[in-house]
Amino acid sequence: MDLRPTDATAKAPSAGTPAGRAYPFPPYPYRLTKGLTVWLAFKACAFALFAMGNILGGVLAFFVWDPWLLWNILGPASRGFGPVASRFRTKEREVWLTIDDGPDPATTPRILELLDAHSAKATFFVIGDQVNRHPELAAEIVRRGHQLANHSASHPCGSFWSAGPARLGREIDRCTDAIVQAGAPAPAFFRAPVGIKTPFLHPQLAKRGMLLLAWSARGYDSLLSTDLAVRRIVAGIEPGAIVLLHDGRNDIGRAAVVERVLDHLARTGFRAVIPPRDSLCV
Ligand SMILES: [Zn+2]
């Protein structure tokens, strides 16, 4: 999808706000209006059918569009609300490692050692509150040639799905502020906590010129054993895969998953890179 603005409503961020920083992504059109308009139209039709006494038709009209809405909220790579990147184009044996939920003194230094040992580069989707607690770790991630990206300020995984535009904006901006205060560039990418979106998220990202990033390989490493998580992840390793890994939460098991995935990449001739922006499939 072309990320360039296509209409007069796609204005550049104004100076003096967090969105006024030099983000590498231009604002893009988002699809919220079209999808939600259809969804609301079906709800209105349902009430009209109820009023006419057509109960079965009303029930069908009321619920028929809900699976679409649910899929776009719950599906990390679903694109009904706007652009989401979940892989990148490459002819090489390359993958993009994305590491969520840090920084954390219990795990980040170990993960950085592992990445260095494999000459691997990664993008760390950090939590803003964690960056404020450990700015030195965030700076160290960048110093070693990795990238920081935005994973919200407080990682409200239980309530992010219900956040309105103002709260979403605060979650995004507070995390960006923490990253910038740690000395890193303003992030270009956002990842929703546990990958659950709200219909209001894309407009907030569009205003800030940020892109939502999902993944193509994940291991549920917070839920499954290390063995099972690694098996699931390596099954998804292929050129252009975006791999979801985890840092933080004082969980050293998460670093063990990173270690075994890096070993697998080395054995199978894959490199871990940060791909160029124009290679992303959105
Ligand atoms: Zn997370």
Number of helices: 10
The major sheet is characterized as: 5 strands, parallel
Question: What would the principal axes of the Cα set say about the shape?
Answer: globular
The termini sit apart by 6 Å
> What is the helix/strand order?
HHHEEHEHHEHEHEHEHE
Which residues form runs of ≥5 with pLDDT under 50?
1-29
| CATH classification, class level of the largest domain | Alpha Beta
CATH topology group of the largest domain: TIM Barrel
Commentary on this structure:
- This protein has helices at about 30-50, 55-65, 65-75, 110-115, 130-135, 135-145, 165-180, 200-205, 225-235, 250-265; strands spanning about 85, 95-100, 120-125, 145-150, 190, 210-215, 240-245, 270.
- The protein contains 10 helices and 8 strands.
- α7 packs across α8 (about 200-205).
- The radius of gyration is 20 Å and the shape is globular.
- The protein folds into 2 domains: about 30-75; about 85-280, Glycoside hydrolase/deacetylase (TIM Barrel), CATH 3.20.20.
- The strands form 2 sheets. Strands 2, 3, 4, 7 and 8 form a 5-stranded parallel sheet that branches. Strands 1-6-5 form a 3-stranded parallel sheet, covered by helices on one side.
- The longest helix is centred in the N-terminal third of the chain and has 20 residues, at about 30-50.
- The chain starts with about 30 loop residues before the first helix and ends in a 10-residue tail after the last strand.
- The protein is α/β, with parallel strands linked by helices.
- The structure holds zinc ion (ZN).
- Zinc ion binds near residues 100, 101, 151, 155 and 193.
- Zinc ion binds next to loops.
